[in-house]
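Dear colleagues,

I hope this message finds you well. In preparation for our joint manuscript, I am sending the UTRA domain-containing protein (Streptomyces europaeiscabiei) sequence together with its predicted structure, so that both groups work from identical material. I would be grateful if you could confirm receipt.
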Amino acid sequence: MNANRWVSTSMPYLTPREKGRGDAWAADAAAQGRRGTQRILHAGEVAAPAEVARLLGLAEGESVVVRRRLILLDDEPNELTNTYYPVGIARGTGLAGMAKIPGGAVTLLARLGHVGALVREDVTAGNPDTEERETLRTAPGEPVLRLTRVTLDRADRPFQVDRMVMPANRQRLRYEIAIDHGLGSGPPAPLTPERSP
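The corresponding structure tokens are as follows:
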């Protein structure tokens, strides 16, 4: 595999960190012998984009808190991430500020009583817009991956939406899925196919 390619799995970013442990990105990069850092480009309230509003169950244009970050791998741009939260959860917390959050946002959310029970991720590929191309330093014609993740609590309430843009030729996404066949309790429930809009 190309030494500049990053292998990514979502699980470390969905689990609260123990007190005193750094953020998941720095730990994940260090485990692969790399250096992971991030720069917060913006944090504060904005009008929810249509897709974000839909995923959070809000009205389009309703206020949300966003944290816009540039994720760096060995000091090179690796990902541009916008994370959105309902204002009722994030207003007045570290999620709305420019400072780094000890243990990451997932740890702060857990302390605030918001723990993920279900995550849905959609991945698409396409061309970056001008801002994305400049920020991520992609070559002309180089495609990006767009990963949209919504995190829901045990009551199926969405409380976080992440929209990530990554240079496609620098990424490898890994999905590990535990399969529960419900042994001893009958056959597994039938799958309901989802349709793309």
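For the figure legend, we might mention the following. Residues 13 and 53 are 22 Å apart (CA to CA). The first strand starts at residue 6 and ends at 8.

With kind regards,
E.M.
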